[in-house]
Amino acid sequence: MAPAVSGNNAIPGKASFKGILAYAKPHRKTFFGVFGCTLIAISADLLQPYLVKIAIDDNLMIGRNDYGMLLIICGIYLLLSLLSFLFSYLQSNLIQFAGQSIVARIRKDLFAHITRLSPSFFDRFSSGSLVTHVSSDTETINQFFTQVCLSLMRDGMTLIFIIVLMFQLDPVLAGYSMLLLPVIALIAVSFRSYMRKTYQASRSRLSRLIAFVAENLAGMNLIQAFHQEKEQQLEFDERNRFYYKANLREIRTSVLFNRSFDLLGNLSIAFLTWIGGRAVFHHTIEFGVLYAFITYIRQFFQPINAITQQWNTLQSASVSMERIWNLFRTEPDVKEAARPLSMPESPVQGQIDYNRVVFGYNAEEPVLKGLELHIAPGEMIGIVGTTGAGKSSLISLLCRFYDVQQGSVRIDGTDIRDIPLEQLQRTVGLVQQEPYLYSGSILDNVRLFDESISREDVISACRFVGADDLVRRLPAGYETMLSDKGSGLSAGERQLISFARIVVFQPAILILDEATANLDSRTEQTVQQALQAVSKGRTTLVIAHRLSTVMGADRIIVMSAGMIVEEGTHAQLLRMRGYYEQLYRHSQGSAEMGIG
Ligand SMILES: Nc1ncnc2c1ncn2[C@@H]1O[C@H](COP(=O)(O)OP(=O)(O)OP(=O)(O)O)[C@@H](O)[C@H]1O
């Protein structure tokens, strides 16, 4: 499995925190609003026990029996409750609005950034871990704003207010209560590191589980074809069990922590009732003060507990921030030139030069070793060779999925690294063995959602490649919706749709990667005809395992171990009696035996 973008043990860096916080800046006013609402809601909440204390000490206990005053106190109490309700509601809505907006923006930028990354990045990172970053990591950041920030603000303020009110009521009792602070801090700190570990273990196991499911779903047909269901099930069970155990451990720790806090809270109430009760007996404090104190001490634990409970979220948020920030910092390997040059000829002629190209997926192991290849405008080149010879690598370089390590690839004399990426993408059209079809209509799949291309252009392109009849036979014609990479169409039909794309977008250079390898001979014929039609007037490179696909090419190059070992027309190569002739004889044998 590919590793996560950054390890789970990543130390939350300042840079990542600052970077993510920059997303919160436009919402400064909202955060001020939240602060204001919190201040009003807390004040309203905390004044209530104080009111009861006034009612007890200044009215009930001294036998004043002032009904009017009692009624006013009850009225104010009710009003404070309403205020607290209203401003708490406002505060929650405001913080949710800010959090959701921030995260929606991060998700948008993240997705845009991922789509700009080079194929080498996707070689390294599994789609499963990327799904986790875009979905759950951003959600954790939302929790950071809506839970951690809110709790720090609300519970932090509550704590300060309670301490002030306690000292104002009775400094001695308040002093006793403060004795509890170090005990609370000790418990919080001792649990902290353990909780962090359990949390991280559970997160990394969950991300491994998600990645496994995503990879399995993507390759389900292969798993079923090779009867790997049992093996995969065993592997899944193992990962599932690991996650289950880690999750249970995390929950157990968290419950133990919370219950210890409850226990401590109850012990302190007992302690205060003892000390305060004695003081009431000795008339050193009033009964209302003791009542207010007991109420405050209950409320005293709540914010501390709430803040420490946020520790988990803070931990996960810092890990998520670090991972997302690392992703943002990942630069595409293939970059736009600092000063891009446009190709001199317009329209593009389609001359291609590979000049002493050295390339490898890692620098130590070159796949192409000083390759030299020159292709004239409009020429059709067939590329053949054994598996792993470097055929796909050759065309990946022309599409600039990767950059050469030495030498250069040029189109019409311009190094492709100097050509603006968008112009290069328009110049080089690629039809892969398994053309990618999007969820959407046939119409949109041909014009790649480019509304500036008319329906008529799409229809005439389909007619040109011989796909019009097949599209019209579909239930909704050009509006037929394809789902799941066009699973309703045959391989040949998907191929024809991708040819129609080429006709619509008119690239000067066309690349076909084993485009007809999967087709039956009748469909192959249709596709061959389409290929002939599409390749007319443009430089075409065709990689084929079936020699029949490239026999008519202007030139065939034969590759082996990253080098061109033979080249010429079909007839010339046969006359050489070399590598190509062997391949040809082998393919003839296979055809006679009904293979390939
Ligand atoms: N993304 C990649 N990361 C690392 N190595 C790769 C990658 N793609 C290909 N290779 C390696 O580079 C070498 C050349 O591969 P390439 O796909 O270019 O050969 P090919 O001739 O197209 O083979 P095939 O006919 O099997 O598709 C092989 O050894 C292959 O294992």
UniProtKB/TrEMBL annotation:
<dbReference type="InterPro" id="IPR003593">
    <property type="entry name" value="AAA+_ATPase"/>
</dbReference>
<dbReference type="InterPro" id="IPR039421">
    <property type="entry name" value="Type_1_exporter"/>
</dbReference>
<keyword id="KW-0547">Nucleotide-binding</keyword>
<dbReference type="InterPro" id="IPR027417">
    <property type="entry name" value="P-loop_NTPase"/>
</dbReference>
<keyword id="KW-1003">Cell membrane</keyword>
<dbReference type="InterPro" id="IPR003439">
    <property type="entry name" value="ABC_transporter-like_ATP-bd"/>
</dbReference>
<dbReference type="GO" id="GO:0016887">
    <property type="term" value="F:ATP hydrolysis activity"/>
</dbReference>
<keyword id="KW-0472">Membrane</keyword>
<dbReference type="GO" id="GO:0005524">
    <property type="term" value="F:ATP binding"/>
</dbReference>
<feature type="domain" description="ABC transporter">
    <location>
        <begin position="352"/>
        <end position="586"/>
    </location>
</feature>
<keyword id="KW-1133">Transmembrane helix</keyword>
<protein>
    <submittedName>
        <fullName>ABC transporter</fullName>
    </submittedName>
</protein>
<keyword id="KW-0812">Transmembrane</keyword>
<dbReference type="GO" id="GO:0015421">
    <property type="term" value="F:ABC-type oligopeptide transporter activity"/>
</dbReference>
<keyword id="KW-0813">Transport</keyword>
<dbReference type="InterPro" id="IPR036640">
    <property type="entry name" value="ABC1_TM_sf"/>
</dbReference>
<keyword id="KW-0067">ATP-binding</keyword>
<dbReference type="Pfam" id="PF00664">
    <property type="entry name" value="ABC_membrane"/>
</dbReference>
<feature type="transmembrane region" description="Helical">
    <location>
        <begin position="173"/>
        <end position="194"/>
    </location>
</feature>
<feature type="transmembrane region" description="Helical">
    <location>
        <begin position="67"/>
        <end position="90"/>
    </location>
</feature>
<dbReference type="InterPro" id="IPR017871">
    <property type="entry name" value="ABC_transporter-like_CS"/>
</dbReference>
<dbReference type="Pfam" id="PF00005">
    <property type="entry name" value="ABC_tran"/>
</dbReference>
<feature type="transmembrane region" description="Helical">
    <location>
        <begin position="144"/>
        <end position="167"/>
    </location>
</feature>
<feature type="transmembrane region" description="Helical">
    <location>
        <begin position="30"/>
        <end position="47"/>
    </location>
</feature>
<dbReference type="GO" id="GO:0005886">
    <property type="term" value="C:plasma membrane"/>
</dbReference>
<feature type="domain" description="ABC transmembrane type-1">
    <location>
        <begin position="32"/>
        <end position="316"/>
    </location>
</feature>
<dbReference type="InterPro" id="IPR011527">
    <property type="entry name" value="ABC1_TM_dom"/>
</dbReference>
